[in-house]
Amino acid sequence: VGAYSLTVTDHLGCEAVDSVEVVEEEAPSLSILGGDTFCAEDSLQLSVATNGISYVWSIGTADYPISINTASDYSVTATSTNGCEAVAHIQVQELPAPVPQIQGDTSFCMGEIGQLFVNDLFDDYVWSNSDQSIQTEVSTTDTYFVTVTASNGCTGVDSIDVVVNDPQVDI
Predict the structure, then answer these.
(1) What is the rounded distance in angstroms from the CA atom of residue 104 to the CA atom of residue 120?
(2) DSSP 1-14
(3) What is this structure's pTM?
(4) How distant is the alpha carbon of residue 106 from its chain centre?
(5) Could you give the CA distance from residue 72 to residue 106 in angstroms, rounded to a whole number?
(6) Per-residue pLDDT tens over the stretch 45-54
(7) Which of 24, 44, 74, 109 gives the lowest tally of CB atoms within 10 Å of its CB?
(8) Residue range 2-53, pLDDT digits in tens
(9) DSSP string covering 58-106, please?
């Protein structure tokens, strides 16, 4: 960095002088945005914050943002107008989705109340009948769903068919 000059003198004493100013260019600033985890059966949107003029992802695209659905190491290279480059890396991990299983009364007589429950403990439960606990009461024929949320923030869904029998007596 700085000014440099070169003086050349030939055998006759003639001189030639040239100079150059060397400037250190800064590499572009670069960071990857969007997080480093995603839930199974979902995806993650990655984008970049850069003052570079162009960038390309390790998967060969310059799309903005990119959608990731595979756990891997990803990088992005930004190039400034002066040709300087910066590289950022991120290790993306896939989180497991919870797998709830509804159990309980799937067939009972009209006038009775059936009980459905989830087989495991999760952070949150939302049933299709709006209940929000590990179990729910049912009294009509229907398909019941539960959406659970695990401690990692991922969700899972299960459903079960319930039949309420209405015996007919002919006299």
Answers:
(1) 13
(2) -EEEEEEEE-TTS-
(3) 0.70
(4) 37
(5) 43
(6) 999 988 878 8
(7) 24
(8) 888 988 998 888 989 898 888 777 778 889 999 999 999 899 999 998 887 8
(9) TTS---SSEEE-S-EEEEEEEE-TTS-EEEEEEEEEEEPPP---EEE--
